[in-house]
Design goal:
about 280 residues; alpha+beta; Beta-Lactamase; 3 domains
């Protein structure tokens, strides 16, 4: 993108510093290069996914539709005042009432329109979160602790647009990786690991920002039962490198808490079930 400004800088140097005026065709080239700069910026953003372009599209649609609606309503108000209230002694009252009504309608319309467009533009994310909320309610029906971790892992892996998903379960004085993994992920974390300490101390989800930590950039979700940390879920950085939204964090936190409670209950119940003789 920097190349787009080179012809303009050369023109400024020759004409502004040396007093040498360049031919018209060179100035035209400089203008064309300037015009290419926004296109190069847009290409960079789209190629490297520097931020979620769908958010820009959503907001552009919201404010575009609202601007059109405001212009249409103002034209309607002007026409109404001109034709019906201009000669009436209640003209001022009518204008004030229409202004208040217009403000109320626009506030409601903005909220409804933004919700509808978010449902449309971010449809895949909305459906994924709905599926995860449904799975959260079904977790208690899974009868085996290892099966519970596996199905939780599968539910997250198939619905999150993240680099990886991993679940670590408490085992002695460490947290051991309990789900399929790649070689890049550690097999276990000590109980005094900096990220684990924060999970144990606050029992709340957070994006790991510890320098040089293997889970840096991941969303860490505590699996708790009665304030006891029985494990945690690591959702890797999003592929578009945006942060997890509050609604996503809330849904994932609820799933992690529910899975932690169910996992603790199943692991505590399993030895008793194994001790029961079979007939």
């Amino acid at each position: 993108m920097t190349v787009a400004f080179v012809p303009g800088l050369i023109t400024v140097f020759f004409e502004g510093t040396l007093g040498i005026f360049l031919p018209i065709w060179w100035n035209n080239v400089a203008v064309i290069f300037y015009a290419l700069a926004p296109m190069a910026l847009a290409y960079t953003i789209l190629k490297h996914r520097l931020f979620d372009i769908r958010l820009v599209v959503s907001r552009a649609l919201v404010y575009g539709v609202l601007t059109t609606a405001i212009v249409a309503l103002l034209a309607l108000v002007e026409w109404t005042v001109h034709h019906w209230l201009e000669e009436s002694r209640f003209a001022i009252v009518g204008e004030l009432a229409l202004a208040v009504l217009l403000g109320v309608l626009l506030t409601t319309a903005h909220r409804r329109l933004e919700h509808a467009l978010n449902q449309l533009v971010f449809r895949a994310q909305v459906l994924a979160l709905q599926a995860l909320r449904r799975f959260t309610k079904e977790i208690d029906l899974i009868p085996d602790p290892q099966r519970l971790l596996t199905q939780t892992y599968d539910a997250l892996r198939t619905r999150l647009d993240s680099d990886f998903v991993a679940i670590y379960a408490a085992e002695g004085s460490s947290f051991v990786l309990a789900t399929p993994h790649s070689n890049e992920l550690p097999r276990l974390f000590a109980i005094d690991d900096l990220a684990v300490l924060r999970l144990r101390g606050f029992n709340e989800a957070f994006e790991c920002d510890e320098p040089e930590h293997p889970l840096r950039g991941s969303l860490l979700l505590p699996m708790t039962a009665h304030t006891h940390l029985v494990g945690f879920i690591a959702c890797g950085p999003k592929r578009d490198r945006t942060h997890y939204l509050p609604g996503e964090v809330e849904t994932l936190s609820a799933l992690a808490h529910r899975s932690g409670s169910a996992y603790l209950w199943l692991t505590a119940r399993q030895p008793a079930m194994e001790a029961v003789p079979t007939l």
